[in-house]
Amino acid sequence: MPERASDESAPGRKAQARRSASLLKSRLLKEEQTAFDTALRSFAMNPAFERMSAMIARSRRRFVLGRGDAQEHAMLLGASLKASFSQVFLVAPPGLDHLDLLADVRTGDVLIAICNRPYRRDTVEIGRLYVAAGGTLMLLTDSADSPLSAFASEQIIIEHATRDAQDDATAVVLATRLLARLASASSKGAVRRAQERERLGDLLDLYESDMRWVGRGHKPGDVAP
């Protein structure tokens, strides 16, 4: 009898688990919406985006640095910039070690560092040494008092909607996308490069045609008749 009672309560436990998941999803989506709205208001009034994007566009070489949780955002920014610019490098092994970066600092290059709480010691030290070698540092950070702020030629302050900065990746992603698109738009060469990449993609037939959906039902996003 106890076993049967346990079996009969299983559907109830599953329903409760689904309700708990739905409540958690609603809470998480609300937090993401708050973070997004906060970032939009902050970025709209921040002229540092225009200044930093112009510096990126006229640079000879562009290095992107982020360690720990910030490395994912650095990879995103680097990939976005590579779509429009040549000479874009992510400072991360095995591609480019920080020793190689610091051993070859040149005029006209920029280092774009993403440094948010908790501040990584290696990011801070690499940024400081790069500036000491005569390089130009640009910074995406969460505070004007961050360890690298005093060394940056330009910085973007990413305000966090919550006290837990690690949970506020939405604002950082938005900042990297906005910065990359502004940099691309401010450079005629970047626009030509993006157009050439698109042409070569078509020439090499890299992408599936929309015809792949023929005979397989409705294309995702289409409304069924």
UniProtKB/TrEMBL annotation:
A family per Pfam: SIS
A GO biological process held by the record: carbohydrate derivative metabolic process
Residue stretches making up the SIS domain: 52-195
InterPro entries, sorted: RpiR-like, SIS_dom, SIS_dom_sf
Single annotated GO MF: carbohydrate derivative binding
Protein's recorded name: SIS domain-containing protein
Organism annotation: Microbacterium saperdae
